[in-house]
Design goal:
Bound molecules: histidyl-adenosine monophosphate
Strand content: 15-25%
Number of strands: 16
Structural class: alpha+beta
Strand order of the largest sheet: 1-5-6-11-10-9-7-8
Oligomer: single chain
Number of helices: 17
Amino acid sequence: MGGRIQPVKGTHDILPEEQGAWAAVRAAAEAILPRYGYREIATPMFERAELFERSVGVATDIVEKEMYTFSDSKGRRIALRPEGTAGVVRACIHHGRLRAHPLDKLYYLGPMFRRERPQKGRYRQFHQLGVEAIGEAAATLDVEVIALLARLLDACGITRVTLELNSVGCPACRPAYREALVAALAPHRAELCPDCQRRLETNPLRLLDCKVPTCGEVTAAAPRLLDHLCEGCRDHQGRVEAGLEALGIPFTVNPRLVRGLDYYTRTAFEAIAEGLGAQAAVAAGGRYDGLVAELGGPPTPAVGFAIGFTPTEIALRELGLPPEADLADLRAAARPRVWCVAITEDDRLPALALAGELRRAGLGPVGLDSRGRSPRAQFQEAARAGARHVVVLGPDERAAGQVVLRDMADRREERVPRDEILGRLAAAGRAPAGE
Ligand code: HAM
């Protein structure tokens, strides 16, 4: 006898009963994004590892520690995608979309993979809804994209979120800030955690984001990037803030907000939900004006974000609003209207055929016993499932080319010609229940 096989650490199953939050995010995406001009794109779940090294950055936690990388049979280094932006940009360059679509608005839904330390709301395979608007540098696009994020979160029922905003500068102003930061922190090197000691050389901006308390104390007094922005970045940031204010979208400026991915320029933002703990962002994103060129395409500005499904689900639960309304809808949609009951073994295939016919005709879920149980047990099951009608297939009726239609509300039964049953049920479906 084999032992049970455990799931891989950091992975999880999403059971049918847990699909409510997922359905809420998916439904919000599909209803809202097309209205904003976004179209769906799907890119592979694995890519050349180099794609993420050049976009997310070699000195980030994601690439350094968290990427699932392996060599294929030809020795090429492949990685499971840790995020979606790099793949979307690669696809746009590969298919020459950037010229044909001066502003390409794209979204995607799918799993991402990071070997993160398992903690509340963080998994090693997790799902994102990502949104990318590629081709426009103006701050109004940042405002539009952030407004879209607010709209999506609202539609998912996530109400208690804070939008944090910062500018991470650009290649013109960041190097000087980096130097100023290193100069200010180097004397405190010994007080920093080992990771931050290393980051001081490789990626000093990430120090601002370290969750170790002593590092937080050291960096509290460090110079702020917002005070070191070049004129272009300062102007851009001012326009983003003014635009959000004009639209009535609340935000707070967090000068310590740095993102865990290197491709960002200027605008960076996170949507923080209450009750999620340290890794509280339900969504995050920003502008990445250098990425397309970095990956070999024509210089093209862009901005986007991704919403994490799991943090969203937890946030919904913490709000005390498991999406009950959605769940009720889902349950109602899954409830069979019609149940086919087979009286004898010989009626089972005809019942299966009829159920298929009714489903194809759009009568919604149609129930059917697939265990060969007694007619009585089948009727009980139909009643438990809440079916409005039961269609009974028995030997006598079969011989006469008929079926029995039972209305479960008043238990009335009548014989109906087999080839009229579809029309009868469709007509009953149009009448209000109970009539
Ligand atoms: P990110 O901040 O790495 O950004 O991830 C975005 C969101 O994905 C997070 O706010 C969080 O909700 C969710 N998330 C990340 N890691 C995990 C995990 N291990 N388990 C569960 N959820 C997680 C990006 O990925 C960028 N590509 C976003 C972007 C798009 N920027 C521009 N365009």
